[in-house]
Specification:
The complex is a heterodimer of chains A (255) and B (230). Chain A has a domain of 143 residues: Rossmann fold (3-Layer(aba) Sandwich). Chain A is built from seven helices and eleven strands. Chain A has a six-stranded mixed β-sheet with strand order 7-8-9-3-10-11, sandwiched between helices. In chain A, strands 2-1-4-5-6 form a five-stranded antiparallel β-sheet, with helices on one face. Classes of the chains: A alpha/beta (255), B mainly alpha (230). At the A-B interface, β7 and α4 of A face α6 and α7 of B.
Amino acid sequence: MGVEVDVQQTFRSGGHDFSLNIQFSCDENITVLFGQSGAGKSLLLKIIAGLQDTQTGKIVINGRVLFDSSEGINIPSRYRRIGFLFQDYALFPHMTVGENIGFSKRSIFSKRLIEKDAERVRELLEIFQIKDFSKKYPSEISGGQRQRVGLARALLQKPDILLLDEPFSALDPLLRIQMRAELKKIQSIFNIPILFITHDPQDVAELGERLVLIKQGLVSGSVDLSNPPYRDSLGKPVRPEIRKILLSAAGVSSA
Amino acid sequence: MYSFPVTLEAVTVPLLLSLKVAGIATFIASVMGISVAWLAAKRDFWGKEVLDALLTLPVVLPPTVLGYYLLVLLGRRGPIGSWLETYFGINLIFTWQGAVIAASIVAFPLVYKSARSAFEGVSRRYEDASRVLGKNEFQVFSLVTFPLAIRGILAGSMLAFARALGEFGATLMVAGSLPGKTQTLSIAVYEAVQAGHDQVANFLVVVTSIVCIVVLLASNYFLKPKYREA
């Protein structure tokens, strides 16, 4: 188990160069990539998923090489076995909730699934408590429900890892608290490593077991949050400590 | 003013010919327009915008100029015409197939432009989502890109059909006006007026107008979005 990422890529947009040079490895259940907007976090996730080209580097997930420029390995997105939750979930607007979840297993000719896959869709609808909405379209359900659909859809094909792009940013604060708890539960039910990006310190404090700090396309720190002193004896995160790290990472001297 | 008796055939023959020519032309223009539009919307290649301008040219060029180009290309001594003649014994000038080619070219930009903007309107997020969900590029197109763009494409095809139905200038130059053979609805109207057959002309004009209005109503229907983005 584990994630090894080492990528270099220079982007040019509007006369400006932006360089991404990221190395980190982790084998925790939940790893948080934290950084300001424009630090290159989203780009990094797309590179890991194979949705964005990379010049040089290596990406290994659970021992499986997805990309290695020195060996000429570049597995296409569709074979990477990655569950990806987009920032606004990117649910297909022309398909119902049930069809969205079953998408990875359907053929181009029919939306009907073979019985084994249909059974798994029903299971996921049950686990995510969205059974009642399976015939509805994404525009007809709430933000929290959409997120559940997005997660269920990503989990159907039994991916090796879940990548989440700012999963809670589109939700209101109250719902955020609930969905964080759900995400934790999902992680343990499916026993799947999660790598997610955020710029909300609260996400780091409540979910992170490994914190990777990203600043202007570079890794500026990697912190193990699973051991003390970042958690108290009850396993509850000690927020002030994390706050200190995040502030210093952001270049603010901590008081 | 004396009235000329309207025979049923004076209307049905050009009408059916027009529907046949416009139908086939719309099909050809749609297949080609959708393919090129997908390339232009989703892929980057050198000279893309120049190609776009060239492909849109039939909208702005006078139909007679277009017809002249086609005559030069497809005529017996033209590069395409002589090749078709020597190897296949085919002559397209003054045939209904020639009219189909003229109508296809005139109708093409309408499908192409609508399909291109419809494809560009399909967010890359949806396509990326289906890629990570294990779909190859053909599956991405047929399950996501095309269904999300279909209404814009259909609206374009409807307009193309209406345009092909009304085609006059280029068709006249390439296919002429042979009654029952290449005399389409719009050309028949012209001939009827020229010959003073006002009743025939009236009838043809009313029929053409109704067909075009129906097509435009259908096109408007398709342009209304069916799904809301979530």
